[in-house]
Specification:
five-stranded mixed beta sheet, alpha+beta, about 25% helix, 3 helices
Length: about 90
Amino acid sequence: MLCPDLQNYMLTDHARWEMQRRSITETHVDTVLTVPEQREEIRPGRCVYQSRLTFGEPPKVHLVRVFVDIERDPPEVVTVYRTSKVQKYWR
């Protein structure tokens, strides 16, 4: 199954907790999910959407990765994180 375009989704409590802990806003997540630079099915029913976004002072590019269970209705964001190791995950 291909990872679908997402306009409607739900944030789980765990995802919200991780977003707060990692200083990732709902706007960041929405940007990644609605216009992802890359998406990949990592196992049946779960996709990772990712985009490069700029954070901090001085500005630094991080890769924001959003993991989504796509077989739910609406799809559920399971967890979110950002990493400075863009090349490790960039396909």
